[in-house]
Amino acid sequence: MKLLLVQMRLRKINMINIVIVTGLLLSKIIAQGGYSLDDCVQITLEGKKTLLSAELEVQSAGKGVTGSYSSLLPYLSATMGSGRTHTSFLDHSSTMSAGLSLNQTLYSGGRSLNQVKQAKVNLEVAQLNQRSTRIQVILNVIKSYYGLLQAQELLDVAQKNLNLSNEQVALVEKQYDLGLVNRTDLLKAKVAKGHAKVDVLNRKATLENTRRMLFNDMGLQDFGQPITAAEEKWAGAAVPTSAEAVELLKTQNPSLIVAQARVRLGDLSYRQAKGLRLPSLGASLNYSANGEATKELMASLKDDWTLGMNLSLSVPLYSGNSLSTQQQQAKLSRQKSEYDYLTLLNDLRVQVELMREGLKNYAEIIPIYETVVASAKEDLKLVQERYRLGAATILEVLDAQVSLIRSNSILINTIHEARTQEANLRATLGTLDKEY
Q1: Which of 39, 75, 100, 429 is 20 to 30 A from 352 in CA distance terms?
Q2: Are the C-beta atoms of residues 150 and 283 closer than 8 Å to each other?
Q3: 100: β partners
Q4: Which of 11-15, 57-61, 84-88, 302-306 has the highest mean pLDDT?
């Protein structure tokens, strides 16, 4: 019952937190007219459960480091015993005993030290995995944010196209009433208007879906609340050189550094396996006393105790080839880790080069697309004017209109791809989380 009450209270607290965050979100949207990418990322970093889970993994690995020192520290134990021995039905004797035992490993073939080193490397791996999770969470939010911005801009283009279609239909209807154009012109204008309406509806549905995706990636519940991505002009990407990219990969990419750490773990495992073949030396100190009853035991602890000191040396001679097999397996595992690291490094190099070349290409084609959009706008204005004067056909107007919406859509999609590519490059290089 108490557990149920605690769970209900926690749920209530979580709901209150969600309402508070959502309220802050809506108030900021109203104040600013849009949410910036930094705002979305900061909200994500403060409450995303995936990040909280990764933090628990780090804490657990930290406890592992603390526990690894136990093999280097002495072991102290206390013992107490009581017994009765019957020599006949009526005759018996009682004994009581108490003692302290202190044990210390003096040498274990390096296994104890290597155990501590392994725990520290595991902690480093947990921290790197936490960074990797953080980078992925940030990348997901960036992609969703830019996806929302893309959907907003495409909806705006579709809405402007619908407005143009409405104006075109109104103009053709007037000209048709005056007998200046054929009925086919009016039908074609209405068909174009119908397609424009469908496009707007589809774009609205896409915008709603991207809004939901962004809320999910931010770790917020979706109550239907609106969110608007603040428009950001594409300013190009800072593309590192090949040498700079490789250096960043080796020093910043968490997955690659984890692969390096696994090589070190493989080396430590190999040392552990070799240490099993070395002798181990231990020491122990024992203090004990005996008595027939509690009073006698207490007196014995004071005046009639025994103290023993021992040294033990253990040398493995033969174990059915198990030790040599473990050593060979550890050596193979270490070699595999080295191969995995080199393979990952080469794969990431290729990925980075592809993204670098892609961003360079975007830097060249986006200005061209911007020029095309400007030309398409001017062309539509000229064709519309010529149509009003009777010097152009309705097909020319519709073609110019389609050309404009296609050019705008291509530009928006290309900028979105460039932004996503830039975020992917920073995530692969391992620098994305450094910015937040």
Answers
A1: 39
A2: no
A3: 78, 287
A4: 57-61
Residue 1 predicted with pLDDT over 50:
no
Whole-prediction pTM value? 0.82
How far apart are the C-alpha atoms of 353 and 247, rounded to whole Å?
13
- CATH class, 34-84+91-435 region: mainly alpha
For the record, the structure tokens of 241 come out as 């050189």
Closest CA to 161 of 343, 313, 377: 377
Shortest CA distance to 185 belongs to which of 195, 174, 199? Answer: 174
Residue 89 is predicted with a pLDDT of 60
> Which residue in this structure is represented by tokens 């053709």?
172
Cα three-residue angle 89-91-93, rounded to 5 degrees: 125
Strand-pair partners of 396: none
Here the tokens at position 38 are: 């930094």
Pick the closest to residue 117 from 270, 264, 334, 328 (CA basis). Answer: 264
Residue 77, beta-bridge partner list: 101
Q: Which sign, positive or negative, has the C-alpha torsion 329, 331, 332, 334?
A: positive
Residue type, 45: L
Ordered by start, the domain boundaries in the chain are 1-33, 34-84+91-435
Distance CA 32, CA 29 (A): 5
The string of DSSP codes covering 152-210 is: HHHHHHHHHHHHHHHHHHHHHHHHHHTTSS-HHHHHHHHHHHHHHHHHHHHHHHHHHHH
Report d(CA 150, CA 235) in Å as an integer.
16
Closest to 314 in 3D by CA, of 284, 274, 277: 277
Rounded Cα distance, 119 and 349, in Å: 30
pLDDT score of 20 more than 60: no
**Residue 406 burial (CB < 10 Å; 0-12/13-18/19+)?**
middle
SS3 of residue 109 by DSSP? coil
* Cα dist from 136 to 76, 228, 373, whole Å: 47, 23, 34
> CA 110, CA 275: separation in Å to the nearest integer?
6
Evaluate the CA torsion angle 7, 9, 11, 13 in order and state its sign: negative
Q: Strand order in 306-314's β-sheet?
A: 75-86, 92-107, 280-291, 306-314
Closest CA to 380 of 363, 395, 362, 398: 398
Name which of 187-201, 206-220, 287-301 the model is least confident about. Answer: 287-301
Whose tokens are 């990419």? That residue is 253
